[in-house]
Amino acid sequence: MSIAETKQTVLIEDVVARRLPLRPKGSHLIGRCPFHEDGGRPNLVVFPTTQRFKCFACGAGGDAIDFIARMDGISLAEAAKRIAGEADQAPRVPPPLRPKERTLDLGKVSATYYALLRYLELRPEDRQGLLARGLSKETVKRRGYRTLPAGDRESLPLLIQMDLGPDALNGVPGFFLSKRDQWELAGAPGLLIPVMDPHGRIVGIQIRATKPGRGRYRWLSSAGKPSGVSPGSPCHAVVGRKGKGSLWITEGPLKADVVAEKVGVTALGVTGVSAWRRALPLIRALGAKRAILAFDRDEGARAAEAVVRNVSQLAGALSRMGVDVLYASWDEGKGVDDALMAGGRIRIGRDRG
Questions:
Q1: Is residue 255 located within the same domain as residue 298?
Q2: Which domain holds residue 173?
Q3: What mean pLDDT, rounded, does the chain reach?
Q4: Smallest Cα–Cα separation from 44: which of 82, 96, 120?
């Protein structure tokens, strides 16, 4: 089995669990890092969604093959063979329970998020940034973009409860119980990007953080906090004026909004190319017969390899569903939104440019 084949068939959580104990925490798994003296709290995190691991103490990270190669001191090719051989054997330690994604009441979640947005405003700087991306004033208003401030995390939950009732925040990602048994709102300050399903329900909210810190884009989530929950990684869908038969799939809800606005098509925004499986149920529901894949042109060999691998897997899954697959390519900028803002030509073809 080749390295590429191994990456497509094994699960990193199974590979790591054969070497060290893991336990679920929110939507991921944690354990003691074997690459340094991990004497404090567990620093190794395994992310099933992206099929990657990361130690937030020593910096070790990568995929399943990287993990075995580093742990056993062997080459990547040897690690791939070892993983393939171990896959048919009993695990060396009991496998962890898969992280349980709490089933969300999407009707309740959407109503609560709409209530939250009513009490927030959009900073002029954020509004100008959205308009600069090519979104119209009408779209910015209709999509409900808002700015989450740094303070005032207790009054907002109270206002929502006054509108929707005392149980409105229970089970809604982003809200948690404080030590005083009062609901509070989590999340980094920044631009709130509502993530919607085809019916207009808000199924999650992404934050474009004012200060990047742990990443520019994050979820409004309260996972790991008292009575808090994770939104998972929902896929954003925006129905364009040209109908649902042909759609574009790109990376991130904001890019999908730009594509729908500038091209007029129905667009899906996955939260990273490795989360492409989240788009499949929406594609079935929309009844799309053609999909145009428009993912970022990542720089660097490893990033580019991961994009190619995941795009190929997505294309294969779509073909098996009877969906015609095409690819968008461009010359200006990293993302399709950059090319559209620059007025560049988008090429559509059978081969990924």
A1: yes
A2: 106-219
A3: 86
A4: 96
